Every structure is written in C-alpha cells, then in structure tokens.
C-alpha cells in the first residue's frame, strides 16, 4: 500500500508538530514507527492502542505491518485530527479504528467536556498488547498522567508494554536549561515538580519531575524497563527529541 498519499495538508499536520515539510513529516513518523516496532518487539498480530494519535502520523506506518489478526485503535481529543484518521485510514483497513474522545486539554481540545481524571478509555480490560503515547504526556498535568496510567494498566494485557514520551526534569536537565544548552526552554514553574514552556497555556509543553513520574508507574505496578533520554534538554545529546519511557505491566491488578 502506498502510504505517502496519507500525508495530510499542512493545516492539519502542523497541529502535531512543526511539519511544514511533508517529507520530514513522513520520514520522522516512519523512523519512530520503526523504533516502536524494534523497542517493543511489536508483532504483526498485536493489538495497539495509540492514545493522542493526532492525524495518524505514526498509525499510517503500521498499515503495511499489522496483519488481519492485529489491530490499531487511535483515540484523540481533537475532532479535526481524529476525523482525518477516520476518513483516510479506516477506509483503507477496517482493523484500524479511530475514536474521538471529548476530553479537555487547553492546548488541543479547549471545548472538551470530560475532565481527564474522569475519563474512562472506551477499551475493554486487558485487551491491548501495546500502548503508545507519542508527545501526549508532554501536554498533560501530572494528576492527569496518573489517571491515564491507571487506565493504561486496566486495558493492557499482563506483560503488555507502554511507550510514552515525556520531558523528564532532573538535576542534569535543570542545569542544561539554566545554562541555555537545552533545545526546549521549559523554565516556567507551574506547580511542584512541573515546569512549562508557557504560563498562559502550560499544556503547550511540560517538563515533569523524573522521580514523580517514576513513582506513578510504580504505583500502578509497571516495571520501567528502559528510559531513553532525548535531546530536548541538551544540544550535546543525540537521539529522539523527547525522553521515552518503556514500561511493562507485571501485575494483573492495579495497586491504586
Ligand atoms: C503533539 S500531538 C502528538 C500527536 C501524535 N501522537 C503524533 O506523535 O503525531 C498531541 C496529541 O495529543 C492529543 N491529546 C491531548 N490531550 C489528550 C488527552 N487528554 N487524551 C487524548 N488525546 C489528547 C492532542 O489532541 C494531539 O493530537
């Protein structure tokens, strides 16, 4: 299947990143999907949940990878982005489903009626092998991440994996920001353990205290398998832009 035709116009794709260049949009999504497959050992028959799937930037690269047994479910709180996925991706493969969720996020869905902490994913218990959140926790408060991790724990099969990208604050990143060596200038104090790029719309980009984030994963019985540090915090590093946490559900019951 030729998936290059699934590059949305710039009005849509610029919602999910600085993507004026359509080739860059395509190539970055491709390389990130390849990393997801490699890092999480994704199999063609796996069931994937992509939370905050945007306009399917990553989803399209699974069209030629998942088989008929596998499935891809994307949910997003931005109606326009989600509609793009429904209208352009589901029509190609029925096992790629997308669902709009009416959740509030000041940066992406300010009309949203559901408070993030009250949101129950429209997904059955223990039905997913893989959950991904690429550049989504970076736009959420810690209390909201807490609720989402609880839900992720509910929907993942035992042994299932979750990959989430974040900007993790620790003594190294704070020092890099202070000495202007970071790519992102996340310097505004918002709350205990939370800094943002912007005070008017803090959801435009958060950095979360690394220890507080780890505690949330442990609270729900996730094993953090690996943290791949990204370059957001330092021009001296190489790798992905954000930090990436790969965690595994070990227990069947949430420790909440
Ligand atoms: C930076 S974009 C990333 C989109 C996609 N993951 C990608 O990498 O191209 C963040 C996405 O998260 C969605 N989002 C923000 N808060 C959300 C929430 N609480 N639940 C579901 N989606 C959310 C936004 O609408 C937006 O599409």
Automatic annotation (TrEMBL):
Q: Which Pfam families match?
A: Methyltransf_31 (PF13847)
| Residues covered by the Methyltransferase domain | 44-178
Write down the top EC class of this protein. Answer: transferase
What's in the keyword line of the UniProt record? S-adenosyl-L-methionine, Transferase
Enzyme Commission number(s): 2.1.1.137
Q: Which InterPro entries match?
A: Arsenite_MeTrfase-like (IPR026669), Methyltranfer_dom (IPR025714), SAM-dependent_MTases_sf (IPR029063)
Q: Which reaction does it catalyse?
A: arsenic triglutathione + [thioredoxin]-dithiol + S-adenosyl-L-methionine + 2 H2O = methylarsonous acid + [thioredoxin]-disulfide + 3 glutathione + S-adenosyl-L-homocysteine + H(+); arsenic triglutathione + 2 [thioredoxin]-dithiol + 2 S-adenosyl-L-methionine + H2O = dimethylarsinous acid + 2 [thioredoxin]-disulfide + 3 glutathione + 2 S-adenosyl-L-homocysteine + 2 H(+); arsenic triglutathione + 3 [thioredoxin]-dithiol + 3 S-adenosyl-L-methionine = trimethylarsine + 3 [thioredoxin]-disulfide + 3 glutathione + 3 S-adenosyl-L-homocysteine + 3 H(+)
* Family recorded in the similarity comment: Belongs to the methyltransferase superfamily. Arsenite methyltransferase family.
PANTHER family in the cross-refs: ARSENITE METHYLTRANSFERASE (PTHR43675)
Indicate what this protein is called per its UniProt record. Answer: Arsenite methyltransferase
